[in-house]
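Record pair follows.
FIRST:
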Amino acid sequence: RARSDRPGEARMLLSLAEANAERRGPQGQELALKSAQEAAELFRAQGAQELEASALLVVMGCQLRRQDDKMQGAADGAATAKQALDIFRAIGSRRGEGMALHGVALSQIRCGATGVAGGAPPP
Protein backbone atom coordinates (compact mmCIF):
# COMPACT_ATOMS: atom_id res chain seq x y z
CA ARG A 1 0.00 0.00 0.00
CA ALA A 2 2.87 2.36 0.75
CA ARG A 3 4.02 2.18 -2.89
CA SER A 4 0.50 2.73 -4.25
CA ASP A 5 0.56 -0.47 -6.31
CA ARG A 6 -3.23 -0.67 -6.67
CA PRO A 7 -3.36 -3.76 -8.91
CA GLY A 8 -1.00 -5.63 -6.60
CA GLU A 9 -2.87 -4.46 -3.52
CA ALA A 10 -6.19 -5.63 -4.93
CA ARG A 11 -4.78 -9.05 -5.81
CA MET A 12 -3.26 -9.46 -2.34
CA LEU A 13 -6.55 -8.47 -0.69
CA LEU A 14 -8.35 -11.06 -2.80
CA SER A 15 -5.77 -13.71 -1.84
CA LEU A 16 -6.13 -12.77 1.83
CA ALA A 17 -9.91 -13.05 1.54
CA GLU A 18 -9.70 -16.47 -0.09
CA ALA A 19 -7.27 -17.71 2.57
CA ASN A 20 -9.43 -16.53 5.47
CA ALA A 21 -12.82 -17.47 4.02
CA GLU A 22 -12.79 -21.17 4.80
CA ARG A 23 -11.40 -22.12 8.19
CA ARG A 24 -10.58 -19.10 10.29
CA GLY A 25 -13.63 -18.75 12.52
CA PRO A 26 -15.84 -15.68 12.84
CA GLN A 27 -12.92 -13.22 12.97
CA GLY A 28 -11.40 -14.74 9.86
CA GLN A 29 -14.75 -14.60 8.12
CA GLU A 30 -15.09 -10.91 8.93
CA LEU A 31 -11.56 -10.21 7.68
CA ALA A 32 -12.25 -12.23 4.53
CA LEU A 33 -15.45 -10.30 3.84
CA LYS A 34 -13.82 -6.90 4.32
CA SER A 35 -10.79 -7.87 2.22
CA ALA A 36 -12.93 -9.21 -0.63
CA GLN A 37 -15.15 -6.12 -0.60
CA GLU A 38 -12.12 -3.84 -0.70
CA ALA A 39 -10.56 -5.89 -3.50
CA ALA A 40 -13.78 -5.67 -5.53
CA GLU A 41 -13.81 -1.88 -5.11
CA LEU A 42 -10.18 -1.59 -6.21
CA PHE A 43 -10.75 -3.83 -9.22
CA ARG A 44 -13.84 -1.76 -10.13
CA ALA A 45 -11.80 1.45 -9.95
CA GLN A 46 -9.17 -0.12 -12.22
CA GLY A 47 -11.74 -1.36 -14.73
CA ALA A 48 -10.67 -4.98 -14.14
CA GLN A 49 -14.15 -6.42 -14.58
CA GLU A 50 -13.33 -10.13 -14.47
CA LEU A 51 -11.30 -9.72 -11.28
CA GLU A 52 -14.03 -7.55 -9.78
CA ALA A 53 -16.61 -10.25 -10.45
CA SER A 54 -14.29 -12.91 -9.02
CA ALA A 55 -13.90 -10.85 -5.86
CA LEU A 56 -17.68 -10.49 -5.67
CA LEU A 57 -17.97 -14.29 -5.69
CA VAL A 58 -15.67 -14.43 -2.66
CA VAL A 59 -17.84 -11.76 -0.99
CA MET A 60 -20.89 -13.90 -1.77
CA GLY A 61 -19.27 -16.96 -0.19
CA CYS A 62 -18.53 -15.00 2.98
CA GLN A 63 -22.08 -13.69 3.10
CA LEU A 64 -23.46 -17.23 2.82
CA ARG A 65 -21.33 -18.32 5.78
CA ARG A 66 -22.73 -15.65 8.12
CA GLN A 67 -23.69 -17.18 11.44
CA ASP A 68 -25.44 -14.22 13.09
CA ASP A 69 -28.26 -13.93 10.53
CA LYS A 70 -28.28 -16.74 7.99
CA MET A 71 -31.33 -15.52 6.08
CA GLN A 72 -29.87 -12.03 5.64
CA GLY A 73 -26.55 -13.58 4.64
CA ALA A 74 -28.32 -15.66 2.00
CA ALA A 75 -30.24 -12.63 0.70
CA ASP A 76 -27.04 -10.55 0.55
CA GLY A 77 -25.26 -13.46 -1.13
CA ALA A 78 -27.95 -13.69 -3.81
CA ALA A 79 -27.68 -9.97 -4.58
CA THR A 80 -23.88 -10.14 -4.75
CA ALA A 81 -23.94 -13.24 -6.97
CA LYS A 82 -26.32 -11.42 -9.33
CA GLN A 83 -23.90 -8.47 -9.51
CA ALA A 84 -21.10 -10.87 -10.45
CA LEU A 85 -23.39 -12.58 -12.97
CA ASP A 86 -24.14 -9.26 -14.68
CA ILE A 87 -20.43 -8.51 -15.00
CA PHE A 88 -19.52 -11.97 -16.29
CA ARG A 89 -22.33 -11.77 -18.87
CA ALA A 90 -21.22 -8.29 -19.96
CA ILE A 91 -17.68 -9.49 -20.65
CA GLY A 92 -18.78 -12.80 -22.19
CA SER A 93 -17.22 -15.11 -19.61
CA ARG A 94 -19.23 -18.34 -19.79
CA ARG A 95 -17.16 -19.95 -17.03
CA GLY A 96 -17.68 -16.97 -14.75
CA GLU A 97 -21.36 -16.89 -15.62
CA GLY A 98 -21.64 -20.53 -14.54
CA MET A 99 -19.91 -19.85 -11.23
CA ALA A 100 -22.15 -16.87 -10.55
CA LEU A 101 -25.30 -18.85 -11.40
CA HIS A 102 -24.13 -21.51 -8.97
CA GLY A 103 -23.82 -18.79 -6.32
CA VAL A 104 -27.33 -17.53 -7.07
CA ALA A 105 -28.67 -21.08 -6.72
CA LEU A 106 -26.85 -21.66 -3.41
CA SER A 107 -28.22 -18.40 -2.06
CA GLN A 108 -31.75 -19.22 -3.10
CA ILE A 109 -31.54 -22.67 -1.53
CA ARG A 110 -30.32 -21.12 1.72
CA CYS A 111 -33.23 -18.66 1.59
CA GLY A 112 -35.66 -21.45 0.85
CA ALA A 113 -36.69 -19.54 -2.26
CA THR A 114 -36.91 -22.54 -4.58
CA GLY A 115 -39.47 -25.26 -4.95
CA VAL A 116 -36.72 -27.83 -4.46
CA ALA A 117 -36.61 -28.94 -0.83
CA GLY A 118 -33.95 -31.19 0.60
CA GLY A 119 -32.35 -31.83 -2.75
CA ALA A 120 -35.45 -33.49 -4.19
CA PRO A 121 -35.84 -33.16 -7.95
CA PRO A 122 -38.37 -30.61 -9.16
CA PRO A 123 -41.81 -31.97 -10.12
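SECOND:
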Amino acid sequence: MTRLMGLVSGIVFVATAVMAGCAGQPEHINLPSNAALNCVVMESVVVVDGKLTIAAGEKPTPGYSVELSKQQHEDGDLMVEYFIATPPSGRMLPQMMTSPCRRIELPRDWHSVTVVNRDTSQQWVFEHP
Protein backbone atom coordinates (compact mmCIF):
# COMPACT_ATOMS: atom_id res chain seq x y z
CA MET A 1 0.00 0.00 0.00
CA THR A 2 2.82 2.44 0.85
CA ARG A 3 4.55 1.64 -2.44
CA LEU A 4 1.32 2.25 -4.36
CA MET A 5 0.73 5.55 -2.53
CA GLY A 6 4.28 6.69 -3.36
CA LEU A 7 3.72 5.78 -7.00
CA VAL A 8 0.42 7.66 -7.12
CA SER A 9 1.87 10.76 -5.46
CA GLY A 10 4.80 10.59 -7.90
CA ILE A 11 2.38 10.62 -10.82
CA VAL A 12 0.51 13.58 -9.35
CA PHE A 13 3.82 15.42 -8.89
CA VAL A 14 4.85 14.74 -12.49
CA ALA A 15 1.47 15.91 -13.80
CA THR A 16 1.66 19.05 -11.67
CA ALA A 17 5.22 19.76 -12.80
CA VAL A 18 4.27 19.34 -16.47
CA MET A 19 1.24 21.62 -16.09
CA ALA A 20 3.28 24.24 -14.25
CA GLY A 21 5.87 24.13 -17.03
CA CYS A 22 3.17 25.04 -19.57
CA ALA A 23 2.02 28.15 -17.70
CA GLY A 24 3.05 31.34 -19.48
CA GLN A 25 3.72 29.58 -22.79
CA PRO A 26 2.33 31.15 -25.99
CA GLU A 27 -0.88 29.52 -27.16
CA HIS A 28 -0.94 28.29 -30.76
CA ILE A 29 -3.95 29.73 -32.54
CA ASN A 30 -5.54 29.67 -35.98
CA LEU A 31 -6.69 33.17 -36.93
CA PRO A 32 -9.30 33.47 -39.70
CA SER A 33 -7.65 34.50 -42.96
CA ASN A 34 -8.13 34.49 -46.71
CA ALA A 35 -5.79 34.61 -49.67
CA ALA A 36 -6.06 36.85 -52.72
CA LEU A 37 -4.09 37.07 -55.98
CA ASN A 38 -4.47 40.79 -56.66
CA CYS A 39 -3.53 43.06 -53.77
CA VAL A 40 -1.07 45.91 -53.63
CA VAL A 41 1.86 45.84 -56.04
CA MET A 42 4.52 46.52 -53.41
CA GLU A 43 5.64 43.95 -50.83
CA SER A 44 4.17 45.14 -47.53
CA VAL A 45 2.79 44.29 -44.09
CA VAL A 46 0.04 46.57 -42.74
CA VAL A 47 -2.74 46.62 -40.13
CA VAL A 48 -5.93 48.50 -41.06
CA ASP A 49 -9.31 48.26 -39.27
CA GLY A 50 -8.37 45.16 -37.28
CA LYS A 51 -7.08 43.26 -40.31
CA LEU A 52 -3.46 42.33 -40.93
CA THR A 53 -2.51 42.22 -44.62
CA ILE A 54 0.71 40.57 -45.77
CA ALA A 55 1.41 41.29 -49.45
CA ALA A 56 4.08 39.47 -51.45
CA GLY A 57 4.40 42.17 -54.10
CA GLU A 58 4.24 41.72 -57.85
CA LYS A 59 4.94 38.19 -59.18
CA PRO A 60 5.17 36.92 -62.80
CA THR A 61 2.77 33.95 -62.46
CA PRO A 62 -0.23 32.89 -60.33
CA GLY A 63 1.80 30.15 -58.55
CA TYR A 64 2.94 32.37 -55.65
CA SER A 65 1.09 32.73 -52.33
CA VAL A 66 1.51 34.06 -48.80
CA GLU A 67 1.35 31.16 -46.31
CA LEU A 68 1.25 31.27 -42.52
CA SER A 69 3.73 28.97 -40.76
CA LYS A 70 3.09 29.96 -37.13
CA GLN A 71 0.45 31.85 -35.14
CA GLN A 72 0.73 32.40 -31.40
CA HIS A 73 -1.20 34.36 -28.77
CA GLU A 74 -0.09 35.27 -25.25
CA ASP A 75 -1.92 37.83 -23.08
CA GLY A 76 -3.15 39.89 -26.05
CA ASP A 77 0.21 39.79 -27.84
CA LEU A 78 0.15 37.99 -31.18
CA MET A 79 2.97 36.57 -33.28
CA VAL A 80 2.42 35.63 -36.93
CA GLU A 81 5.16 34.00 -38.99
CA TYR A 82 4.78 33.73 -42.77
CA PHE A 83 6.62 32.75 -45.94
CA ILE A 84 6.13 33.32 -49.65
CA ALA A 85 5.34 29.99 -51.32
CA THR A 86 6.71 29.63 -54.86
CA PRO A 87 5.28 27.61 -57.74
CA PRO A 88 6.53 24.03 -58.14
CA SER A 89 9.54 23.89 -60.47
CA GLY A 90 8.88 22.57 -63.97
CA ARG A 91 5.16 23.31 -63.84
CA MET A 92 3.56 25.15 -66.76
CA LEU A 93 1.91 28.35 -65.55
CA PRO A 94 0.41 31.27 -67.46
CA GLN A 95 2.63 34.33 -67.69
CA MET A 96 0.51 36.96 -65.98
CA MET A 97 1.30 39.46 -63.28
CA THR A 98 -0.20 38.76 -59.86
CA SER A 99 0.23 40.36 -56.45
CA PRO A 100 -0.67 37.70 -53.86
CA CYS A 101 -1.51 38.55 -50.26
CA ARG A 102 -3.14 37.13 -47.16
CA ARG A 103 -5.61 39.06 -45.01
CA ILE A 104 -5.86 38.00 -41.36
CA GLU A 105 -8.67 38.97 -38.99
CA LEU A 106 -7.16 40.04 -35.65
CA PRO A 107 -9.06 39.31 -32.41
CA ARG A 108 -10.73 42.28 -30.70
CA ASP A 109 -8.52 42.02 -27.61
CA TRP A 110 -5.12 42.21 -29.31
CA HIS A 111 -2.50 44.54 -27.81
CA SER A 112 0.37 44.03 -30.23
CA VAL A 113 1.15 41.87 -33.22
CA THR A 114 4.64 40.88 -34.34
CA VAL A 115 4.90 39.67 -37.93
CA VAL A 116 7.99 37.69 -38.95
CA ASN A 117 9.11 36.66 -42.44
CA ARG A 118 10.33 33.09 -41.88
CA ASP A 119 12.83 33.22 -44.76
CA THR A 120 14.44 36.63 -44.16
CA SER A 121 13.79 37.04 -40.39
CA GLN A 122 12.54 40.58 -41.13
CA GLN A 123 9.91 41.60 -38.60
CA TRP A 124 7.27 44.25 -38.04
CA VAL A 125 5.60 45.17 -34.73
CA PHE A 126 2.19 46.85 -34.55
CA GLU A 127 0.59 48.25 -31.37
CA HIS A 128 -3.18 48.43 -30.96
CA PRO A 129 -4.22 52.10 -30.69
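COMMENT: Strands lie at 27-28, 33-36, 43-48, 51-56, 65-74, 77-85, 101-105, 112-117, 123-127.
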